[in-house]
């Protein structure tokens, strides 16, 4: 059964950085066009990136009053966890979403993992996660794909939808996201793979909520648990997590 389902009327997308929503932007557009209520939140923002996010939101049809910017610091969001937690709780109370979508807990970026924990600690309903990239152990990361693809749902995009997705990616001119996505696809072709980021979107219900353990198959977990970045993240976030 697909998770790309219009029956849940009120959706909150908790992204970490303005541009993360590129990975799920066509589903956002489809929800808006269907008449669902859609809200967008970004944990980090600054003036330039906020302006870009507002432009993208307008292209997707999400109204200004449904946008939330938490203005946390890029790269060290985990250090601001205690201040962000009540802000997320307040946002959940105001929006009252039926479902929340955020970046996967996948050890690709400490900011993404922190947002994922903030969502799970303040929302008690279904959390859908979207793959961004993993893991920070490797120079060339796997983008927009889960390390375990079981139980995922895939939304296949039509030609016009794929074109809009590329247009959205190009709006973030303060970042190098467009060139990164282009180079990743070229790299996949060289590896004999056909992962085309503009032609599909991926989502699953988050099951892994044991935040003291990386969210990957065991052979990746054992290496990650020894990684300095994982340990640094744990030192700052886990003191706030029950259990």
Structural class: alpha/beta
Which sequence of strands runs across the widest sheet? 3-2-1-4-5-9-8
Give the count of helical stretches.
Answer: 8
Instruction: Identify the overall geometry.
Output: globular
Can you say what the CATH homologous superfamily is?
HUPs
- As for the number of domains, it is 1
How many strand segments? 9
Sketch the major β-sheet.
7 strands, mixed
Percent range for helical residues?
Answer: 25-40%
CATH topology: Rossmann fold
Write the layout of secondary structure elements.
Elements lengths: L9 E6 L9 H10 L2 E8 L2 H14 L6 E6 L8 H15 L3 E5 L6 H13 L4 E4 L2 E2 L7 E2 L9 E4 L2 H11 L7 H14 L9 E6 L12 H7 L3 H10 L6
Parallel strand pairs: 1-2, 1-4, 2-3, 4-5
Antiparallel strand pairs: 5-9, 6-7, 8-9
Helix pairs in contact: 3-4
Characterize the structure shown.
This protein has 243 residues and is α/β, with parallel strands linked by helices. It has one domain (10-157, 201-240): HUPs (Rossmann fold). The chain is built from eight helices and nine strands. The chain has helices at residues 25-34, 47-60, 81-95, 110-122, 159-169, 177-190, 218-224, 228-237, and strands at residues 10-15, 37-44, 67-72, 99-103, 127-130, 133-134, 142-143, 153-156, 200-205. The strands form two sheets. The protein has a seven-stranded mixed β-sheet with strand order 3-2-1-4-5-9-8, with helices on both faces. Strands 6-7 form a two-stranded antiparallel ribbon. Helix 4 links the parallel strand 4 and strand 5 (127-130). The protein is globular, with a radius of gyration of 17 Å. The model has no long low-confidence stretch (mean pLDDT 92).
């Amino acid at each position: 059964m697909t998770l790309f389902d219009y029956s849940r009327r009120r959706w909150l997308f908790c992204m970490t950085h303005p541009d993360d929503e590129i990975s799920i932007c066509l589903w956002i557009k489809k929800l808006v066009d269907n008449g669902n209520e859609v809200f967008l939140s970004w944990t980090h923002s600054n003036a330039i990136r906020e302006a870009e996010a507002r432009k993208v939101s307008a292209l997707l049809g999400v109204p200004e009053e449904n946008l939330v910017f938490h203005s946390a610091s890029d790269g060290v969001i985990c250090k601001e966890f205690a201040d962000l937690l009540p802000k997320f709780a307040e946002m959940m109370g105001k929006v009252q979403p039926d479902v929340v979508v955020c970046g996967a807990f996948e050890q690709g970026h400490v900011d993404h993992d922190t947002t994922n924990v903030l969502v799970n600690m303040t929302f008690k309903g279904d959390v859908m996660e979207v793959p961004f990239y993993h893991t920070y152990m490797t120079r060339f990361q796997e983008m927009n794909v889960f390390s375990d693809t079981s139980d995922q749902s895939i939304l296949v995009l039509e030609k016009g939808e794929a074109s809009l997705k590329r247009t959205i990616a190009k709006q973030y001119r303060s970042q190098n996201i467009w060139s990164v996505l282009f180079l990743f696809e070229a790299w996949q072709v060289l590896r004999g793979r056909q992962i085309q980021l503009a032609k599909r979107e991926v989502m699953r219900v988050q099951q892994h909520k044991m935040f003291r353990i990386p969210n990957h198959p065991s052979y990746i977990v054992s290496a990650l648990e020894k990684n300095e970045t994982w340990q640094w993240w744990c030192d700052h976030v886990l003191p706030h997590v029950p259990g």
